[in-house]
Design a protein that fits this description.
Blueprint: H1 2-6, H2 26-56, H3 63-87, H4 96-130, H5 135-138, H6 141-162, H7 164-168, H8 186-223, H9 240-269, H10 277-301, H11 303-313
Helix pairs in contact: 2-3, 2-10, 2-11, 3-4, 3-6, 3-10, 4-6, 4-8, 4-9, 8-9, 9-10
Transmembrane segments: 30-54, 66-88, 108-130, 142-162, 193-216, 249-269, 281-305
Subcellular location: Cell membrane
Main location: membrane
Length: 328
C-alpha cells in the first residue's frame, strides 16, 4: 500500500492504462522547467531579431544573408519546439498521440532543414573564396531563394517518407497513455542517418577544409603585400570582406557541429538507454542550444547586426524609409 501511494500516474483516472511519472527531485524538475523556458524565449527572440533585420533592411538583401535568414527561421521554430521539452518536464506527455507525432515530425523537419541550410552556407562560402570571379554570376538572389525553398520542401518530403508509418498510426509505439516516442524501422533509420547526418556533415567538412586552405593562402598573400596574381585567367583573390564572412560563418558551422554531433552520436549508438537522465538532458539541451548561439555569433562578428538591433529595439524601423538605412 505504501508503494502504491508513492506511485504517481500521468492520468490517475485511467489507472492501469496510464504511464507512471518518473521519480525526480522537485528541484531538478523546477530547474529543468526554468532553463527550458528561458532558452525557448531567448532563442525565439534573438532569431526574430535576425529575421526582422534581414527582411526589413534592403541593404542586407544579399545571397549570403538570405541563407542566414533561412537558418534563423528554422532556429526560431526550434525555440517553440523547446516548449515540448517543457511539457514533458515531469515525464508525461499530456497532449495526446496526434500532437505527439506532429511535435516529433516538426522536430525532424526543422533539424534536417537546419543541416541543409548549413550545407548551402558552406557551398556559398566555397564559391565566394575559391571562385570569387564567378561568384556574382553563380550565386544570385534568385538561385539562393530557389535553393532555400527546395531545402525546406525536400526536408518536408523526406521526413514524411521516413515517418509515414507513425504518421498513419500515431501512438503505435507508445506502451501507455502519457508517452510520446517514435521508433523507425531499420531502412528508415539508415536513410535518416545517411541523408540527415553523415552525407551533409561530410560535405560541410570537406568544403570548409577547402575554404580554410584557400583563405589561409590568400591571407598570407595579403600580409606579404603580394600584388602579382599567378594564373590570372583562372584565379582571383577573394575580397577581404569575403574572407571575414568565411571566418564568421566558419564559426557558425563549427559550433553547429559541436552541438549536433553529440546528440546524433548518442542516438546512433543507442547509448541513450545506458545514460542517466541528466546526461540525456545535457545532450538534448546542447542540441537545442545551438539555435540560440547563432544570433550571438552574429552580434560578435557582424557590426550591421548590432546596428540593426539598436534600430529595431528603438522602434525606428517603423519610420518611413527606414528600410533604406545604411548599416554597412
Amino acid at each position: 500500500m505504501e508503494a502504491f501511494r508513492e506511485t504517481e500516474l500521468c492520468f490517475p483516472q485511467l489507472l492501469n492504462a496510464s504511464c507512471v511519472k518518473p521519480q525526480r527531485p522537485h528541484f531538478e524538475v523546477l530547474l529543468t522547467y526554468v532553463l527550458a523556458l528561458s532558452l525557448s524565449l531567448l532563442t525565439a527572440f534573438l532569431n526574430l531579431l535576425v529575421i526582422i533585420s534581414i527582411s526589413h533592411f534592403k541593404q542586407l538583401h544579399t545571397p549570403t544573408n538570405f541563407l542566414l535568414l533561412s537558418l534563423a527561421v528554422s532556429d526560431f521554430f526550434v525555440g517553440f519546439l523547446l516548449f515540448g521539452q517543457i511539457l514533458v518536464t515531469d515525464g508525461c506527455w499530456l497532449l495526446g498521440d496526434h500532437m505527439c507525432i506532429m511535435y516529433q515530425y516538426l522536430d525532424y523537419v526543422i533539424t534536417s532543414t537546419s543541416v541543409g541550410n548549413m550545407v548551402l552556407i558552406s557551398v556559398d562560402r566555397y564559391v565566394a573564396i575559391c571562385d570569387p570571379l564567378h561568384y556574382p554570376i553563380k550565386v544570385t538572389q534568385i538561385r539562393v531563394k530557389i535553393c532555400v525553398s527546395l531545402c525546406w520542401i525536400c526536408s518536408v518530403i523526406f521526413q514524411s517518407l521516413i515517418l509515414k508509418d507513425v504518421l498513419k498510426q500515431p501512438g503505435r509505439y507508445n506502451s501507455c497513455i502519457g508517452e510520446c516516442i517514435i521508433v523507425n524501422n531499420y531502412a528508415a533509420g539508415l536513410a535518416e542517418v545517411i541523408f540527415s547526418f553523415i552525407l551533409p556533415i561530410t560535405v560541410i567538412i570537406f568544403l570548409y577544409m577547402r575554404v580554410f586552405t584557400v583563405a589561409v593562402s590568400q591571407a598570407r598573400a595579403m600580409r606579404s603585400h603580394v600584388t602579382t596574381v599567378t594564373q590570372r585567367s583562372t584565379k582571383v583573390t577573394a575580397k577581404k570582406s569575403e574572407l571575414k564572412a568565411a571566418r564568421t560563418l566558419g564559426v557558425v558551422v563549427v559550433v553547429f557541429l559541436m552541438c549536433l554531433c553529440p546528440f546524433y552520436c548518442v542516438a546512433l549508438t543507442g547509448q541513450d538507454n545506458l545514460m542517466d537522465a541528466s546526461s540525456v538532458a545535457f545532450v538534448t539541451i546542447l542540441y537545442y542550444f545551438n539555435a540560440c548561439l547563432n544570433p550571438l555569433i552574429y552580434t560578435l562578428f557582424y557590426p550591421w547586426f548590432r546596428k540593426s538591433i539598436k534600430l529595431i529595439l528603438a522602434l525606428r524601423i517603423l519610420q518611413p524609409d527606414s528600410c533604406e538605412t545604411n548599416l554597412l
